[in-house]
Amino acid sequence: MNTVDALRHEFLTDVAEAAERTALDHGIDPAVAEQIGCAVADMMCAEYPGIRIYIALDMGYRLAPRDREICLLRAEGKTIPELAKQFSLSEERIRQIIKRRDVRDPDFGQGKLFEEAAAGR
Fold this sequence. Notes:
Blueprint: H1 3-25, H2 30-47, H3 65-75, H4 80-87, H5 91-104, H6 113-119
Helix pairs in contact: 1-2, 3-5, 4-5
């Protein structure tokens, strides 16, 4: 197996395992979770054959819509206990979401100076 094939195999294995872990975290039966993981990796191979994907080495991926809403409401002044109650989460989980916001979306709450200037022309 050449280096590219080995890397692709490792990537698809990681994708399958991540999907399986997520399913397990949501209370799915372990046997079904494993099948979900395999199905996700198989889908990627079937739907995107031959595609080359570049994955940047940063953590700047977007917040989930629910987490973004939590951060926006917090910025508007809602308290952590209020958010925990509204979203049926623990106060500690709300704190974790707010804490990792800066890692996942460093531009959170920031305007887009250059995009707005270009759009205004």
